[in-house]
Design goal:
About 60% of the residues lie in helices and about 5% in strands. It is mostly helical. The chain has one domain.
Length: about 120
């Protein structure tokens, strides 16, 4: 399992924990965690030319720890459940999100016409 999928799974569990009454420090740490996971997942998605980068960026902005969005607790519980569900569905349906892949694209038109995109596996 790739590091992005593990991060999304951890984020989903943390978001599900947020629906219970927790101390304020938990929610503060949750914002950092979810924002970081989303930035990393958006980077990997962009690198793999996946449209999933845009929802990850939107969730990262929603959970950013600097400019907090203040709303009622019931609305945040609904947001947490929707985002956790989205993370779990992404883990299940998007096995391509692999942070260990490095995609290189030829720079000139001739090389692009004669060669395919090369994928190199990074060692773990």
């Amino acid at each position: 399992m790739s590091s992005v999928r593990i991060g999304l799974g951890v984020g989903a569990v943390a978001l599900l924990g947020a629906i219970f009454d927790m101390p304020n420090d938990y929610y503060r740490a949750l914002r950092f965690l979810i924002c970081g996971i989303c930035i990393f997942a958006a980077y990997v998605s962009l690198r793999e030319r996946s449209a999933l980068a845009f929802p990850f960026l939107a969730v990262g902005i929603l959970f950013n720890p600097i400019l907090r969005i203040h709303t009622e607790r019931t609305i945040w519980i609904a947001i947490d459940l929707v985002v956790a569900s989205g993370f779990l569905v992404t883990v299940w349906l998007a096995p391509r999100l692999d942070a260990a892949k490095v995609v290189t694209i030829p720079h000139d038109q001739e090389a692009a016409a004669t060669t395919d995109v090369q994928t190199v596996e990074a060692s773990s």
